[in-house]
Amino acid sequence: MIRKLFLLTVVVVMGVAIAGVFGKQHIESFGDTPISLTEDTLYELRPGTSVRGMVSELEKLGVIDDGLKLRLFSRMQKELQQIKTGEYQLKPQMSHRELLQLFVDGKVVQRQITFVEGLRSRDYLARLAADPIIIKTLEGKSTEDIALELGITPAHLEGWIYPDTYSYTKNTRDIDILNRAHNTMKHVLQEEWANRQENLPLKTPYEALILASIVEKETAAPEERAQIAGVFIRRLKKKMRLQTDPTVIYGMGDAYKGNIRRSDLNKYTAYNTYKIKGLTPTPIANPGREAIHAVLNPAPGKALYFVAKGDGRHQFSSTLAEHNRAVNNFQKNQRRKNYRSVPKSASSSNTDLPASVEKRDS
After folding, report:
1. Strand 165-168 vs strand 86-90: parallel, antiparallel, or unpaired?
2. Beta-carbon neighbour count of residue 126 at 10 Å?
3. Whether residue 349 has pLDDT greater than 60
4. Strand, helix or coil at 114?
5. Fewer C-beta neighbours within 10 Å, C or N terminus of the chain?
6. Residues with Cβ within 8 Å of residue 173, at least 6 apart in sequence
7. Per DSSP, what are the bridge partners of residue 307?
């Protein structure tokens, strides 16, 4: 009797062991089976969510069919229990193992926002405000308030936001992106300043930033930046006014409607370089590294003027006579749509001539 009982116990234990082995193999193989999705799905794993809670959510969303098996599988693969919070993109045909590994690796969805070179800070703020994902913390704040929040003193935001493409994840704040862009601008500016040419008429990195913003607005041709910068550097050295339209436009503010009139050129603002000497008090846009590099490493030459050719590029001249000929060559036949003449008083003194000649309404 005892022998029979012993044999029965052995059989039961062996049966349980065999069942356990096959059960374990079944759960392990479950990890390599595909999840139930038929299309890409975004899922947010919120802070404080446990593996059990995550599995329950995925089951309710129809991402998986068997939550119990997924929990058992994660217990068998302890390294797959260290899940990280964030927003994830789940794809059809990924396996249950790949699903858990995605959460463990923390490969959250990366979105992007682009700040284009030469735009004003208010344009970047509008871009941030229009983004449906970024958390808004700057609504109702002035650019001065934002500048102070970023640690910019004096509190003028213009020029201090580096134009680039920035990646961000869900729950990122607008101020966080601006802070990254500001820190990048500080780094780029200091790096370029440390490698500048000698004998430049720029006393501080901020002055370089101001001139870089003007260069950025003056040309759409990247290869011309160093030449444009050279013209302005020489004019500064000669105590000539910069006389560049983008500064006038910036000083006009909302009054600018697409055209500059002679009355605008004659009206004093702190940014009208037809009226003020030297640089504007602040940048007029946010320049990229190339523009900053150009003003700190301007192209050599003698040119003091440039005129738009009509193809996005410019003709450079070192004398008034050459400049006038260039104006005639490139604009004589297009006066109705893009003619801008040299002021009559310009012929009497080359210290009061515009650096550029482009479109102007009379």
Report:
1. unpaired
2. 11
3. no
4. strand
5. N
6. 134, 135, 136, 137
7. 315, 357
Taking Cα atoms as reference points, which of 38, 89, 86 lies closest to residue 62?
38
How far is 310 from 137, CA to CA, in rounded Å? Answer: 43
Domains, the chain, ordered by start:
30-105 (3.30.1490.480), 111-190 (no CATH), 203-357 (no CATH)
CA atoms within 13 A on the CB side of 213: 27
Per-residue pLDDT tens over the stretch 164-217: 999 999 999 999 999 999 999 999 999 999 999 999 999 999 999 999 999 999
Is the pLDDT confidence value at 342 over 90?
Answer: no
Q: With a cut of 80, say whether residue 100 has pLDDT above it.
A: yes
SS (H, E, C) 268-304: CCCCCCCCCCCCCCCCCCCCCHHHHHHHHCCCCCCCC
Residue 271 has pLDDT above 60, yes or no: yes
Backbone angles phi, psi at 225, to 5 degrees: -55, -45
The CA–CA distances, whole Å, from 173 to 137, 162, 282 equal 7, 17, 27
* Residue 5: per-residue pLDDT: 52
Q: What is the pTM of this model?
A: 0.81
SS3 (DSSP) at 250: helix
**C-beta pairs of 41-47 under 8 Å, 24+ apart in sequence:** 41/89, 41/90, 42/87, 42/88, 42/89, 42/90, 42/109, 43/87, 43/88, 43/89, 43/90, 44/86, 44/87, 44/88, 44/170, 45/83, 45/84, 45/85, 45/86, 45/87, 45/88, 45/103, 46/85, 47/85
Q: Are 260 and 360 in contact (CB under 8 A)?
A: yes
How many Cα neighbours within 13 Å face the side chain of 65? Answer: 9
